[in-house]
């Protein structure tokens, strides 16, 4: 029976799934919108990805990452739960072992990972301003009534991109509206938005970092040709976009689960049947000390599966 590893990267905007073979090759992947309902997205993704598992296959391990990695890990019975930095770095190194810089821009956050000799030596994340993330482009695409899938193609038509203030999402939108009212061409405005996002990223997330080639560009925004072109223009270097750019975090989680298999012969993966289980998440504030930790609790059929969020471990160890 062939063995497979399931990786889940559950974020606030998108949910990614990957089935990886024992040799590290990708069998199948899935990219969904989370739409504010991670439990629903996880279960929907499991139902769909399960269709790729044949009678001769068997998922033996599972790994999760992303902002909802704890929740996803409890639901599927993950063998390993890792942060996005580790997962994206592992996936990039699998694709290109000589990678030195990973640029990842997602829906709600963006990150840079500095790798030297196959080891992560530095990283940074942006989780404050949306001007350097995909949600910024999504919002502007909606304002312009242009499908976000066409943003990059339209940006590439521009001969003279308009400079748009990109330090803050609010100011960028105001500046864009001003440029529209001044009569600038749509493609020049969109190209300007792409360059503004890249400036924001380089001035904030990548500030002070030594960006060396090979540079791997990952995350959903990597699909945008305008952003890729703006990055290469600003850096003066080529940027590599993996074929599976959108699900690299999930691939990394699956690969990390394989690594964890050597430490334990038994998997905790609960199977695809969890897609039909009724999960519920609640939270309460612990008042036993001045920290007043918010403790997250996951239940299935009335049974408490897991708790986390407490600093002292009183509830998470229970």
List keywords for this structure.
single chain, about 325 residues, alpha/beta, Nucleotidyltransferase, domain 5, five-stranded mixed β-sheet, 9 helices, about 35% helix, globular
Describe it for me?
It is a single chain. The chain starts with a strand and ends in a 10-residue tail after the last strand. The chain is of the alpha/beta class. It folds into 3 domains: 2-89 and 249-274, Nucleotidyltransferase, domain 5, CATH 3.30.420; 97-241, 2-Layer Sandwich (Nucleotidyltransferase, domain 5), CATH 3.30.420; 279-308, no CATH class. The strands form 3 sheets. Strands 3-2-1-4-5 form a 5-stranded mixed β-sheet, with helices on both faces. A 4-stranded mixed β-sheet has the order 8-7-6-9, with helices on one face. It is built from 9 helices and 12 strands. Helix 6 (169-181) runs antiparallel to helix 7 (186-204). The protein has helices at 38-50, 69-76, 84-95, 134-144, 151-155, 169-181, 186-204, 225-235, 248-261, and strands at residues 2-10, 14-21, 26-33, 57-65, 80-81, 101-105, 110-116, 119-126, 215-218, 279-285, 294-300, 303-308. Helix content is 33%, strand content 25%. 44% of the residues are buried. The longest helix is centred in the middle third of the chain and has 19 residues, at 186-204.
What topology emerges from the helices and strands here?
Blueprint: E1 2-10, E2 14-21, E3 26-33, H1 38-50, E4 57-65, H2 69-76, E5 80-81, H3 84-95, E6 101-105, E7 110-116, E8 119-126, H4 134-144, H5 151-155, H6 169-181, H7 186-204, E9 215-218, H8 225-235, H9 248-261, E10 279-285, E11 294-300, E12 303-308
Parallel strand pairs: 1-4, 4-5, 6-9
Antiparallel strand pairs: 1-2, 2-3, 6-7, 7-8, 10-11, 11-12
Helix pairs in contact: 3-9, 6-7, 7-8
């Amino acid at each position: 029976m062939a063995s497979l590893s399931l990786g889940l990267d559950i974020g606030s905007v998108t949910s990614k799934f990957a089935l990886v073979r024992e040799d590290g090759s990708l069998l199948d992947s899935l990219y969904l919108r989370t739409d504010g309902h991670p439990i629903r997205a996880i279960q929907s993704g499991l139902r769909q990805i399960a269709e790729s598992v044949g009678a001769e296959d068997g998922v033996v391990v599972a790994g999760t990452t992303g902002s909802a990695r704890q929740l996803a890990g409890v639901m599927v019975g993950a063998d390993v739960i890792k942060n996005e930095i580790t997962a994206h770095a592992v996936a990039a190194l699998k694709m290109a072992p000589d990678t030195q810089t990973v640029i990842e821009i997602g829906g709600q956050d963006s990150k840079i990972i500095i790798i030297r000799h196959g080891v992560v030596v530095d990283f940074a994340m942006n989780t404050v301003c949306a001007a350097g993330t995909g949600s910024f482009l999504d919002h502007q695409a909606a304002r312009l009534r242009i499908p976000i899938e066409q943003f990059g193609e339209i940006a590439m038509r521009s001969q003279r991109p308009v400079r748009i203030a990109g330090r803050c999402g609010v100011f960028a939108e105001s500046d864009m509206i001003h440029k529209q009212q001044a009569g600038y061409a749509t493609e020049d405005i969109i190209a300007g938005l792409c360059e503004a996002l890249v400036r924001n990223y380089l001035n904030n997330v990548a500030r002070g970092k030594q960006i060396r080639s090979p540079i791997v560009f990952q995350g959903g925004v990597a699909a945008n040709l305008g952003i890729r072109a703006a990055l290469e223009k600003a850096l003066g270097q080529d940027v590599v976009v993996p074929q599976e750019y959108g699900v690299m975090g999930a691939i990394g989680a699956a690969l990390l689960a394989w690594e964890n298999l050597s430490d334990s012969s038994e998997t905790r993966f609960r199977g695809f049947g969890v897609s039909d289980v009724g999960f519920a998440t609640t939270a309460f504030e612990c008042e036993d000390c001045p920290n007043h930790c918010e403790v997250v609790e996951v239940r299935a059929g009335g049974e408490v599966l897991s708790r986390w969020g407490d600093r002292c471990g009183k509830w998470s160890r229970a």
